[in-house]
């Protein structure tokens, strides 16, 4: 069995809707390529283009109501407490991620023969090919990270047969000017504020003000081979009689200097685009694509996956999606989605860029769903679950930068809202690093544990890389500061346990003792799990770094006093500190199961009763319609994988992939609208089924379903600095290769006996200290091959 290198999305027709177009990106700049014959469209984004500007949305009155709310919650007067929180302790809306505009290419061609468009995941290039009047036309589009430019290459099989017009447009107020007979520049400005769109909300609050809002520019430079270029009304360029054409596309924003306005800002933005053109224009197209592909494959080629073959892979992707929803067996589809998720993360999150938001970097709306912001009560975290496991650690860096960037505002919010030390953040963050609550119902906005959850990504980056400098200089200081907030935020309840109050389980509600719907209480399981995980990781970090003994002891004492997990009347893990009934049993969030994943607070091999409670909660949600599609379905794949149930993990994966609203024709994931976390979460979930390392050992094939009885994976990462390949047959591992970044003791968990280990052809002595676990010494830079009978 060989790895499938033909990983493509392909179609026989152009894109009809935005969700049919194909995404390209370099982390900063994104494009959606439609592939129309007569008038093609490439919709453009820049990851720093947002509405608004830096502003203080903290509520300086909130602290005055905190004690009263806590007293009402202690008396179980939840509805009254919730009303006060919603009236007096909210903040303001975050801002929205904005589209830049569109590049239109118009051709004198109204029909095409032998049409084909594709996104090649192996090269990160979108290609459109067709014939018109016997002439073959080809278009290639990619966004280069190494050259920081979008490249559009047009060619044809007959000399001089390329004729088209190029134009720019934007939804924002803008002006267009030409330059040097081969360039166009569009300069515009964003709104000063955009109300969020929660999908279906009618409000159209998009506020523009003259001279305000972020300025931006996009430009094109046309470099033809043969033919001539002419200007049309300074707003359009016409190319006639060319053999081939390179169109360089660049964007620039005033994100770093929002104070600059008017002509001065516009000149600098156009100059920025010009510099990008100057850097790229001396390269031939073959050089540009070669540099792009080499840079991209440096990341993409680290991991390969084969789960079996099917005839469905011969179908166009849109037909394949429909076939899959009709229950056609297609194991290659799961492998395609796995690699597509890796492609999307590489394309939307590179070192030095902004973190991937709710839509990665792709958005065409002035009012995108949920503002297309960084939603930090699950979504942005899920975006990055695959970064370490799927060997894209560098792509994790933008999220780490975001965490570092919100600390300053987070300290202000912690102090102003709650009179606490350290830093905090709530469920929505935008590019301006806002950390205060937003608006709406309290069980949406009131949740000051986002910072503590985000800190898990800092610990995981260390756990996978073993980078002690990162732990000492970046991760631990941020984690310690978040732990200080939690220490101050915790209060003692009537039983002497430390709890949070007010507390919510993100976006979920329960029935109060009076039968009223409410989301505000004390000591939600989500809160207690996140704080427990943060304290454990801080203690471990301080021990590794051999510092802060007094602080470590303070955390250990607080850890011992945290409200423990509780099992409710249904045998479920309680979601709140009291055993209240959910308003919606099949709710989309699974916040109380944090300790199972992404946390590691439970060992299913020893904590059987607690593991059963987690499983019961999971089953109740899914039996009532929750967690079967979109990002909730992706989260549930991880839960079942951590519970060691490959069949349930596979059933959930299949449900998420087969649901009629799960995938658009371009494989974007969405329930009501595109959310990239569903794509990236599926990638992580598949990896979790094949390899786990959260309990001190490397667990090979911990949740392999019967449907994937034969397969292989190369390049997955395990905590401790390991890279792992696995080949399996008839549901059992046959060979495993392990490469270590560090010397030390390697522990492997495998549900088989008779294991032989070799290094460079020489047998390695192994110890088997417990059932299904072997140990052996490894040296950095060496490969160890395990063979199983």
Can you walk me through this structure?
The chain has 3 domains: 8-50 and 96-300, putative glycoside hydrolase family protein from bacillus halodurans (Beta-galactosidase, Chain A, domain 5, Distorted Sandwich); 63-94 and 325-563 and 580-668 and 676-695, Glycosyltransferase (Alpha/alpha barrel); 709-788, Golgi alpha-mannosidase II (Immunoglobulin-like, Sandwich). It contains 18 helices and 36 strands. The strands form 8 sheets. Strands 1-6-7-8-9-18-15-12-11 form a 9-stranded antiparallel sheet. Helix 16 packs antiparallel against helix 17.
Give the key terms:
7-stranded antiparallel beta sheet, Beta-galactosidase, Chain A, domain 5, 36 strands, Immunoglobulin-like, Glycosyltransferase, single chain, 24% strand
């Amino acid at each position: 069995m060989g790895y499938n290198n033909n990983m493509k999305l392909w179609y026989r027709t152009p894109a009809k809707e935005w969700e049919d177009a194909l995404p390209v990106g370099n982390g900063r700049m994104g494009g959606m390529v439609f592939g129309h014959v007569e008038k093609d469209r490439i919709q453009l984004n820049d990851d720093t283009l947002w509405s608004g500007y830096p502003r203080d949305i903290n509520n300086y009155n909130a602290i005055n109501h905190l004690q009263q709310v806590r007293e009402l919650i202690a008396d179980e007067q939840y509805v009254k407490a919730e009303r006060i929180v919603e009236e007096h302790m909210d903040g303001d809306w975050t801002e929205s991620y904005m589209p830049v505009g569109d590049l239109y290419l118009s051709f004198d061609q109204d029909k095409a023969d032998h049409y084909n468009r594709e996104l090649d995941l192996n090269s990160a290039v979108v290609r459109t090919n067709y014939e018109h009047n016997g002439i073959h036309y080809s278009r290639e589009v990619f966004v280069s990270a190494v050259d920081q430019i979008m490249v559009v290459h047009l060619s044809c099989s007959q000399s001089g047969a390329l004729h088209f017009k190029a134009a720019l447009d934007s939804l924002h107020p803008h002006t267009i000017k030409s330059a040097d007979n081969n360039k166009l520049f569009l300069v515009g400005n964003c709104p000063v504020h955009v109300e969020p769109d929660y999908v279906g909300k009618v409000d159209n609050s998009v506020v523009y003000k003259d001279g305000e809002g972020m300025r931006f520019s996009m430009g094109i430079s046309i470099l033809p081979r043969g033919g001539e270029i002419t200007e049309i009304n300074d707003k359009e360029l016409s190319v006639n009689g060319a053999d081939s054409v390179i169109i360089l596309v660049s964007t620039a924003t005033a994100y770093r200097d929002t104070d600059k306005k008017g002509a001065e800002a516009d000149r600098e933005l156009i100059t920025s685009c010009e510099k990008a053109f100057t850097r790229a224009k001396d390269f031939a197209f073959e050089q540009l694509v070669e540099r792009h592909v080499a840079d991209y494959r440096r990341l993409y080629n680290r991991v390969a996956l084969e789960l079996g073959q099917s005839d469905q892979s011969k179908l166009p992707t849109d037909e394949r999606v429909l076939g899959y929803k009709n229950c056609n067996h297609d194991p290659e589809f799961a492998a395609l989605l796995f690699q597509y998720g890796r492609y999307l993360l590489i394309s939307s999150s590179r070192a030095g860029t902004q973190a991937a938001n709710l839509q990665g970097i792709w958005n065409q709306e002035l009012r995108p769903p949920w503002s297309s912001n960084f939603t930090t009560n699950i979504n942005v975290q899920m975006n990055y679950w695959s970064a370490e496991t799927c060997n894209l650690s560098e792509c994790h860096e933008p999220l780490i930068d975001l965490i570092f960037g919100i600390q300053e505002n987070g300290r202000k919010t912690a102090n102003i809202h709650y009179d606490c030390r350290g830093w905090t953040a709530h469920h929505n963050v935008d590019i301006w690093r806002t950390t205060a609550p937003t608006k709406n119902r309290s069980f949406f906005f009131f949740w000051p544990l986002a910072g503590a959850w985000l800190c898990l990504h800092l610990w995981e980056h260390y756990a996978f890389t073993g980078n002690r400098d990162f732990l000492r200089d970046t991760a631990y200081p941020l984690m310690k500061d978040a732990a200080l907030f939690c220490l101050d935020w915790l209060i003692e309840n009537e039983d002497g346990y430390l709890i949070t109050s007010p507390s919510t389980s993100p976006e979920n509600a329960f029935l109060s003792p009076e039968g009223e719907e409410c989301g505000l209480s004390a000591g939600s399981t989500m809160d207690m799990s996140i704080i427990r995980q943060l304290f454990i990781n801080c203690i471990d970090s301080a021990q590794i770094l051999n510092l802060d003994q007094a602080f470590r002891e303070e955390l250990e004492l607080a850890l011992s006093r945290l409200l423990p997990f509780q099992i409710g009347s249904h045998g479920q893990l309680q979601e709140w500190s009291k055993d209240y009934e959910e308003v919606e049993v099949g709710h989309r969030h699974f916040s109380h199961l944090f300790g199972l994943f992404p946390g590691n607070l439970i060992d299913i091999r020893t904590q059987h009763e607690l593991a059963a409670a987690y499983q019961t909660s999971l089953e109740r949600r899914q039996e009532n319609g929750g967690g079967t599609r979109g990002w909730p379905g992706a989260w549930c794949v991880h839960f079942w994988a951590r519970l060691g149930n490959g069949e349930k993990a596979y059933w959930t994966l299949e449900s998420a992939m087969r649901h009629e609203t799960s995938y658009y024709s371009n494989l974007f994931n969405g329930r009501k609208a595109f959310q990239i976390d569903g794509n990236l979460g599926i990638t992580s979930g598949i990896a979790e089924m094949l390899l786990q390392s959260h309990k001190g050992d490397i667990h090979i094939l911990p949740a392999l379903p019967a449907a994937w009885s034969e397969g292989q994976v190369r390049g997955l990462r395990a905590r401790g600095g390991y890279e792992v390949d696995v080949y399996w047959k008839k549901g059992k591992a046959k060979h495993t290769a392990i490469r270590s970044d560090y010397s030390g003791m390697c522990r492997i968990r495998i549900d088989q006996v008779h294991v032989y280990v070799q290094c460079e052809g020489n047998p390695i002595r192994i110890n088997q200290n417990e059932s299904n676990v072997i140990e052996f010494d490894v040296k950095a830079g060496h490969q160890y091959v395990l063979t199983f009978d």
